[in-house]
């Protein structure tokens, strides 16, 4: 295993691998065109395909410098990849020789810090997990690299993907991620850094992960597109786990098309994962993203929202009413649906017991870390941070879980079926292509518990100038239909905006 040395860069820790030879360039990187930081993948690809125009080295250098300048204000990035420029140079050479790996060739990507990367830390934002690098890439990270993506860094997150306990977007290693639209606004979690970085123009695409809301919520609050795929669609190996019943990685970008491109590149199920049985393969998720995609689509929406346990008419939400108008004007057929709320009794106990078993197993298998179990991690945090405040309440609750795998199995089966029925039944009865809701109603919770896909798309801004969003969801493996509907809505709504903080 190679050695590592911590270096302070701006407001984040950069852990670099020791290199035997310095990085050299035939010429210094060139300035990129104005506005490049907010260009789409297609626009970046077009620029890089022009002889003598922008190279991947130029783009990577620009974005890493932008991170150095902006990150002290945002804490969205926790670590830079010391090999990013070298990787970009290799890809530029390949392009010059006529080899282009795919649509992401030379495109920078940020990876959430709970996903394993070969030459960087994978700590989930916890100092107790800082040590030797994983020494390998998670399969889906390798898929991105094989398609020509350039990892420029790792993103901050709510520590331990939210299972330490603390503010959304905060980790002991990375600090508090801020929403680039307003420093006092909610940033969401746990994929806080991935969402904030994309919104702030630090990278065109980023990888997030979700157990329950960790892609959907920060994407919505930061005004970007976030797709939470069906559980089992993508390979989950090499990701610090929480619960195999719900864990899933997913793409985050500034447009539905870029999310679809990223999903294409990451596709590859794990045949040993029971959740992947029946997962579709070989799909081009961009194929259905065409003009007029909403015409004739049957889209269900909640006839009432449940707010604080009470049913509130949808008409009470001006923002969601506007979302419905955009869909209807673009040709969609809207169907009001009485959405049933699943019985979530015992859900938290089941989830936390999963976390205890799966994270302990992961820590035992990782080498070169200060801790080998959650109990040791709690002790490490107490010794590092003191015990005068309960600074890791959820982690203590997890460590105290007592449900056995056998006790959990039957309960999970009943609970998941109930959550799935709440989605499947109205879609089957009304022959719907998708459902739409406002993420703030918490609909994403039941969709995540069911293991089903959802995608959030910017829908405008509220009275405070903060992003609002439309949330589309559907049954298992319905990603192609959801992406088509989300793309149609995005093109009709035209609500993309840049943050005002930077």
CATH architecture of the domain at 4-25 and 38-276: Alpha-Beta Complex
Q: What is the share of helical residues?
A: 25-40%
> So what's the overall shape?
globular
Strand order of the largest sheet: 3-5-4-8-10-9-16-17-15-11-14
**Residue runs with pLDDT of under 50 for 5 or more positions:** 1-25
Please tell me the overall pLDDT: 93
Query: What name does CATH use for the topology of the domain at 4-25 and 38-276?
Result: Amidase signature (AS) enzymes
Describe what you observe in this structure:
With 502 residues, this protein is an alpha+beta fold. The chain has a domain at 4-25 and 38-276: Amidase signature (AS) domain (Amidase signature (AS) enzymes, Alpha-Beta Complex). The chain is 35% helix and 17% strand. Helix 2 (56-74) packs antiparallel against helix 3 (84-96). It starts with a strand and ends in a 9-residue tail after the last helix. Residues 1-25 have low confidence and may be disordered.
Quick summary:
It contains 14 helices and 17 strands. The protein has helices at residues 41-49, 56-74, 84-96, 139-146, 192-199, 216-222, 256-266, 318-329, 347-365, 374-385, 393-399, 405-430, 443-450, 479-493, and strands at 4-9, 12-17, 77-80, 108-112, 150-155, 170-171, 175-176, 205-210, 225-228, 248-253, 298-302, 304-307, 310-313, 333-337, 434-437, 454-461, 467-473. The chain starts with a strand and ends in a 9-residue tail after the last helix.
